Amino acid sequence: MYSDDHVIYGTGFAFSIWLIFPQIGTLGFVVTLLSTFLIDVDHYFYYIFYKRDLNPINACVWFDKKVKDYLATPVSERPAKEQGVFIFHSLEFLSVIFILGFFVPYVHFVLIGFVFHVILDMCFEIYHKVNFKRKLFFCWYFLEELRK
Ligand SMILES: [Zn+2]
Description:
By secondary structure, this protein is an all-alpha fold.
């Protein structure tokens, strides 16, 4: 899913949570809201690593083109294309955040925002017939890479 869509849906989601559970307070709302789209910073890290460039605008343009190219590729040819490693989107990382939340205040709000984001990504990827297992399961990615 594209970043601007995440901001729009994330804002609606965070407001809904705040309306239903006003006791989360302003900070809980802000942390949840930011988490719904800042999770994609792992895409930026991937871009820095892959392209050796720190410019975030170049990263956005590059990913936009990459997603469009990927979606334009016939489904049968997609497994050969590189999807990237997005650590924050993995179930393993979300599990760490879940455990960390018992020790650090507001981390569970980060988890709520991240999980909302990942669910939106999965809906997008299922709709566009993208193999989301590589992104969702970090271990799956490495197992597939080892098999190459
Ligand atoms: Zn994402």
